[in-house]
Each structure stands twice: as C-alpha cells, then as structure tokens.
Specification:
alpha+beta; six-stranded mixed barrel; 26 helices; 22 strands; elongated; disordered N terminus
C-alpha cells in the first residue's frame, strides 16, 4: 500500500469511527464504563504518586538552603574543627556552628527523665530559614543566660511528656536549664535523619555548662556556610580540599541537603508507582474483556464492512480509533486526579514530613501516566482487534453460534510483543532503582502467566469432573468451563490482588511476632551510651546492685569512616543499595580480644589470639563483605579522628542483627584503637518492674550517660510497622478494586448470554429461585477456587520475603488466609450476583422473539 493510500485509509477509518462514536455513544459503548474506570484508577494512581513526589522534590529544592542551614555543611564526629580550619572557613563565607549530642533530660525532682537530642547553636544560627517558637520570640534571647541558669528552647512534646511549661527548670547533664520557649519547628530538622528523642536548643555556653562534651562522646560538629556571591559550591569544595586534603569532615551542599529524606521519598515513589502500575495491569484484563465484548456486539457491522470490500486493516483501524478515543477519556480523567493531587496532599504531607510541598502542575509524571495508560490499552486490546481483523466475514456472521477463536497472525503477534517490550522498557527506564523495576517486570510477567495456567487448569478440571446429580450444582460447574466463562478473568484479576493482600498480612504478622519475641526473650532492656573510661567500673557496680539486672555487656566504641576497600577508594565503588550505608557515613567501631559471645559467628578465617599485638586486623560482616567483593586478606582503610589506618581482614562473621545486641560491622584486633579517645556502650537486661528505677539511678549518678529504652524503640518500630501495614493494605485495596472492576466488567459483558440462559432455563421449567441458586453456586465455587489459589500464592510469597529478604522466622497465619478467603468469596458472589440479577427478571417471550 502506498503512503497516499495509507493516509486515505486512515482518514476513512477516522470518519467511520467518529460517526459511530457520535451516533451510539450511550447505547453501544455502555460496556466501556468499566474499561474507563480501570484506566482512571491506574493512571490516576500513577499520576498522583508522581505529581506528589515531584512537588515534594520541588519543595526540597526550593528550601534546600534552609534545610541545610546554608550553602555548604561540613560535619565532623567527636571533635571540633581546628582553629586554623575555622579561620579559613570564616575568611571564605559566613559561618555558623552547631553541635549535636544525645543526653538525658529530667525533671528537677528526678521523677521523670527522657532521652533528648541536644543542639547547641551560635548567634549566627540559622543562617537561612527561621526557627518557630512559642513563648520567647527571639532565639538568641531565649537561649541566653537568665539569672543563674542558661535558657533552653524545648520541643513541645518533651514539655508535655515531663509535665513542664515555660519558666520551669529542666536538668540536663550537670546543670539546670530554664525553659524559655517551646520549639515548634526547626528549619534544618530533615538533615538529622533518625531522631531518638525530642530536641532541646541551647547556646554554646549552655552546652558547656552541662559538661556533656567529654572525650570520645558521641557528638556531631556541623559547620554551615553561606558563600559569597559568585562562588559556587563546586569551586568552594575544590579550594577546601586543596587547603585541607586530610580533613575528616563530610561535605554536603544544597544538591544533597537531606539525603535520607530524599532516598525515602524516591523509594516510596517507586513502590507506589509500581503498585499503581499493578492496578493498571490488572485493569488491563478489564480493558481486554470490554474490547472483546464490544466487538462481539459489532460482529454484524464488521462482517458487513468486509462483505462490502473493506480491507481488514481498515476495519482494525476503525475500532482501534474508537478504543483509543474512549481510553483517552479515561486517561484524561485519571490525569486530572493526578494533577490536583499535590494541592490536596500538601496539608497532609506538611504534618508528616519536615518540608513544605510546592504544589503545581508537573507534566513529567502526567506524561508518564498517560504513556502507561496508552500502552496498557494497546497491549490488552490488540488481541481481540486482531482476531476480528483476520477472521473471514462468514465466520463473523456465525459468531452467534461459534465464538471467535484462534490467534492473531505473525505480524500482529510481533506488534503485540513489541508493545509488551515497550511497556517493560518504560517501567525500567522511568524507575529510579532499575533493578527493583526489573524484578517487578519479571514478577508481573510470571504472575500473569501462572494465573493464566491456573485458570486453564480450573476450566479443565471443571470440564472433566463427574456430572453432579443436582441440577443446580451441575449448571454451576458447567458455567465454569462454558464458552465465555468468567473463570479466567476472575482468577487473574482478583487472584493477583488477593495474593498481595495475603502476603502483606502474613509478613506483618510474622514481623510483629518477631518483635514481640525480641522484647520478651532476646533484646536488652537498655542501651547506655557515652560511658567514660573512668565510669566503666562504677557503672557496672551500680547495675549489679539492682535486683533483676543481668547480662551486662560493655564494649569500647569510637567512630570512623571507611575510605578504601582492597586498595580502591570508596568513591569508586558502587555497592548494592541495601549495603550503601556502610560507606555512606561514619561507622561505629570497637575492638575485642575474644569473639562476641552472642549475635555473630565466625564463618571464614580465624580469630586472633587474645594477646595479639601485630599489624591491624579486623573482623568484617560476612554479608557486607560479599556485597563489596571482599575476602580474607583484603585490606580496608579507615579515617579515625583524622588518622588513616589500613587493616587486613582476618575473619568474616555471620551477624544476626535481629537479636538487637551490640554487633558491629567491623571489630578491630587489640592494639590499633586502644589508645584512641573512646567511650563505652553497654546493654543490660532487667525485669520491666525495675526499668524506671535503674534509668533514674544511672541518670542521677552519671548525668552524661544516655539511656535508650529498647522496649520503647521496638514499640515505636511496631507502631511504624502497623502504619505501614495499613498503608500496604490500602495499596493492596487498589489492586483488589481493579480486580473487582474487571469482575464487574466481565459479568456485564456476559449479561446477554446470561439473559438467554435464564430464559431458556425458565422455558424448560426452572423457577427463578433455581436459576438464582445456580448462579450463587457458580460464583461460590469460583470465589473459593480463586481464594484458595491466592492464599497459597500469598503464603509462598510471604515465606520467601520473610526468610529470604527480612531473615525472620516464618509461621503460617491461618487467620490471614481465612479472612482473605472470605473477602474473595464475598466479593465474587456479591458482584457476580448483582451483575446477573437483571437476567432473572427478563420475560421469556420478549427475549425469544428477538433471537
């Protein structure tokens, strides 16, 4: 066909398609309501997630300087910058210093205490942004000296917890502070990552009065700068590195102001986008069903067009234009929801994240959602369109008694394969973690294939099963394998959604059981940090004097940064994402003469002798070593307090992090770290009844020692898991909703056949009650079969994730399987019977006269 002929054919197809759309949009295209609802659900979810994510990123970019506290941040652990370094920084920008340390804040009467994040700031803080206070409006005035005590700005949650108010006293370390204002918001909160307690802001002099900054204390020194006009971050960092090539600080600029928050948003966006795409894929089954049903209604028109000489390509183009036109309406509605999502989500996100959204119209996510919607429409509608194109006119006239079967030609199959690859490629290319997207593509393809096979097996088993003696049951079983049966659509669409729900519920149940077991059996009651060397023995004596206290374990600790592995700088190493944290920041390091008593086991190499005094040796986490390609004998370089140490791997340990004991990725042999300024950390097991008394006694005798209640941390983790579980179930509900839409569409598409069947049965003597009972049994059998398959598949998925990824013990949760079985059966019966109800009331004479 020439180009001119092709253009003419396309124009003719458009005119015929437009006339059909204009002339019968209500009557002929009523079945496309489910078709469009599936597209609205999927594209709306993808567009909304992408738009909200983009608005958060835009908010981060717009407020990056406030979040960072300037144009540049330099962070050092344990010790401040030297006078020479500070002088250089002051010459090259406007400087502000912040010191952060954990401490125990307590009421003056000692009745209540709480772990807090102490933050000492200078007069220049904040260089960018504002601190929101309630009470004293000026931060400098609030943290100045007030009589015989220094002022403190205290997080309002801490005031409520301790029962304090403005002008009350608060003991921290070896001094008492006066509460001058309640802290409502910090501009740089997002840069701190995980926060174990509420914030207290004091002056440098106020922090010094607490005497918390002991040698080796777990403290962070942050230096923020506003650069002079015309000086970029890249040029500044180059000059800084040339001036101090061996400085231990980590440098951050506005392009990476809140990396932890950014990573969280990126992963959440990817996950939710993939969920939206899952709903769209499930809805694609409904798209295919709707197109197939539509073409079944148009067989006479198609046959007539072919008899009049219309080429097969023209026929296909006519109905492809109609399908895409209706799909465009559904996609447009979904994009509208996505476009307004940032405006609707702004108040919610502002309460959950320490950043303001930048609501607006973001074309990128909308275009991506539209592309997914178009590709899904094409992938699932091409097969029925190709069947109608390639079947002769005579076969189309006989479709009323011989339904269309077969497979498209090679050309159409090749086009279909290309569209599937385009869909997979778009998923892969648009993901920020391509590996996870690749696994999703593989998993989605495998799930579709598996449920297709399962549906075929159910149909075959129903066909081969002995004929039941009861007519109602016999009719129900026959309906499972008759031409146009709902079996394949229901098993595929609802089965996928229920599988996800079962897996989520079982994973959450096993995680909760694991956490509860840790609290009751393995996890220590407390972590105590910042124990000074001269306090180690008195601390042990105090703990030993408490009834119920046991299993005290104390180890030395300091922090250092891994700078090289096997002779390669870490900047040249790209580890798996789940192990990037090892080289991303400073790590806790310890040394020991003997292997850890619990929580880890040497699986390669040998432990050093207790009296070892040779070159630096280390024990390394076996899983981390595998991720970074390290083995016995390889060297790892560390920057510890500005000094570079290279150590050789002597052995590898398999670490059980789930015990929540004191486990370290790296343990040094004696000698290398003995003389470095260090503190000790300790874990203690104690009966719950004595926890408060032990915490109060330690805080009173050792004001610089901070106590972390493991039970409270695990309770917060359990609460987070519960929140995530709710979110995951809501996400699974999107997929289930898509499955329900597919079920509704399949029932609607087969309504004509069900009306005919009901009329014939009633003509042969069946009562309305008999027909209804047969339909109830049909949908009951279909729901039970789908639920059984989904429960089994979800259980296998939960087992694989729990044991293979999360490394937790797995037990089968029959309650989750039973609950989802009931949901599946109820949904199948409800929507199946509602969709078939109209068939029960049809008059036999009217229907038979039209056949």
């Amino acid at each position: 066909m020439t180009a001119a002929a092709g253009d003419a054919s396309l124009g003719l197809a458009w005119r015929i398609a437009r006339r059909e759309l204009r002339g019968g949009i209500r009557s002929r295209f009523r079945g496309f309501r489910i078709f469009m609802a599936c597209l609205v659900l999927g594209t709306g979810a993808i567009a909304a997630v992408g738009s909200v994510s983009s608005s958060i990123e835009a908010g981060l970019a717009a407020n990056a300087r406030a979040l960072l506290g300037g144009d540049i941040e330099l962070r050092i652990h344990h010790r401040p910058a030297t006078d020479e370094q500070i002088a250089w920084l002051e010459e090259n920008g406007t400087l502000s210093r912040v010191v952060e340390i954990r401490a125990m804040a307590r009421r003056p009467d000692g009745r209540e205490q709480r772990l807090v994040e102490m933050k000492a700031v200078d007069a220049a803080y904040p260089l960018v942004g504002q601190v929101q206070l309630r009470g004293e409006a000026d931060l400098d005035a609030a943290i100045a000296r007030h009589g015989n005590a220094f002022g403190a700005v205290v997080d309002q949650s801490l005031l409520a917890r301790l029962g304090l108010s403005v002008d009350d006293r608060l003991a921290v370390g070896e001094t008492a502070l006066v509460v001058t204002a309640a802290l409502l918001r910090e501009p740089d909160r997002a840069t701190r990552g995980i926060q174990l307690g509420p914030t207290i802001i004091v002056s440098d002099a106020g922090l010094e009065a607490t005497r918390l900054l002991q040698p080796g204390a777990l403290s962070d020194y942050k230096y923020r700068l506003v650069l002079p006009p015309g000086i970029g971050a890249k040029a500044f960092k180059t000059r800084l590195t040339e001036a101090f090539p061996d400085a231990p600080w980590r440098i951050r600029d506005v392009t990476n102001a809140a990396p932890g928050l950014t990573r969280f948003i990126d992963r959440l966006t990817l996950f939710l986008t993939l969920v939206g795409l899952s709903a769209l894929l499930i809805g694609g089954v409904g798209v295919g069903n709707a197109v197939h049903a539509f073409l079944a209604q148009r067989t006479t028109t198609v046959a007539t067009l072919k008899c009049l000489g219309a080429p097969a390509r023209l026929v296909q183009r006519i109905y492809l234009i109609q399908v895409l036109s209706l799909a465009g309406i559904g996609i447009a509605i979904g994009l509208l929801f996505g476009a307004v999502a940032p405006f609707a989500a702004a108040p919610v996100v502002a309460r959950l994240l320490p950043v303001e959204l930048a609501p607006g119209l973001y074309p990128g996510p909308l275009a991506l959602a539209a592309a997914f919607g178009v590709l899904i429409t094409l992938v699932f509608s091409l097969w029925p369109l190709a069947l109608a194109r390639n079947v002769p006119a005579a076969a189309l006239f006989r479709q009323a008694i011989t339904p269309l079967r077969g497979r498209p030609g090679r050309r159409d199959l090749g086009l279909l394969a290309g569209l599937v690859l385009a869909l997979a490629g778009l998923t892969f290319a648009s993901a920020r973690e391509p590996l996870l997207a690749a696994w999703f593509v593989v998993g989605a393809a495998a799930a579709f294939a598996a449920f297709r096979v399962v549906a075929a097996l159910i149909i075959r088993l129903a066909r081969a099963a002995p004929r039941p003696r009861r007519p109602r049951l016999r009719l129900a079983v026959a309906n499972l394998h008759r031409p146009g049966a709902l079996t394949a659509s229901v098993v595929l669409s609802l089965g996928l959604g229920i599988t996800v729900l079962v897996a989520i519920m079982m994973i959450e149940r096993n995680l909760s059981q694991q956490i509860n077991a840790l609290v009751e059996e393995q996890a220590p009651a407390f972590y105590f940090i910042d124990i000074q060397p001269n306090q180690r023995q008195p601390f042990a004596d105090l703990v030993a004097s408490f009834p119920g206290a046991r299993a005290l374990r104390t180890v030395p600790m300091l922090r250092g940064r891994i700078v090289s592995m096997a002779g390669r700088p870490v900047s040249e190493i790209t580890p798996p994402p789940e192990y990037a944290w090892i080289t991303r920041d400073d790590r806790g390091l310890t040394w020991s003469r003997t292997p850890p008593e619990r929580g880890s086991e040497v699986v390669a190499g040998n432990w050093w002798p207790e009296d070892y005094s040779g070159p630096p040796l280390i024990s390394f986490d076996a899983e981390a070593a595998k991720a970074y390609g390290l083995g016995i004998g390889d060297t790892v370089g560390f920057n510890i307090l500005g000094r570079t140490i290279e150590a050789r791997i002597a052995n590898l340990r398999q670490i059980d992090w789930a015990t929540l004991g004191m486990n370290f990725v790296v343990i040094f042999a004696p000698g290398a770290l003995d003389g470095a300024p260090q503190i000790s950390i300790a874990t203690v097991h104690i009966d719950p009844a004595h926890e408060n008394a032990l915490e109060a006694a330690v805080t009173e005798h050792f004001p610089n020692v901070s106590a972390i209640r493991v039970r409270e941390v695990l309770a917060e983790v359990n609460g987070i898991l519960s929140s995530i579980d709710v979110a995951m179930k809501a996400i699974a509900a999107i997929a289930i909703t898509a499955g329900v839409l597919v079920l509704s569409g399949a029932v609607a598409a087969g309504r004509r056949q069900r009306i005919y069947d009901a009329v014939v049965l009633k003509t042969l003597g069946a009562t309305r009650h008999d027909v209804l009972a047969a339909y109830v049994l049909e949908f009951l059998l279909l729901g039970l079969a789908t639920a059984a398959i989904a429960a089994a598949a979800g259980s296998v998925a939960a087992w694989a994730v729990s044991t293979g990824i999360m490394h937790v013990d797995w037990t089968f949760a029959p309650g989750a399987a039973a609950w989802t079985t009931l949901v599946c059966v109820a949904a199948t019966m409800l929507f199946g019977i509602v969709g078939s109800w109209r068939a029960l009331g049809q008059k036999a004479a009217v229907v038979l006269r039209t056949e």
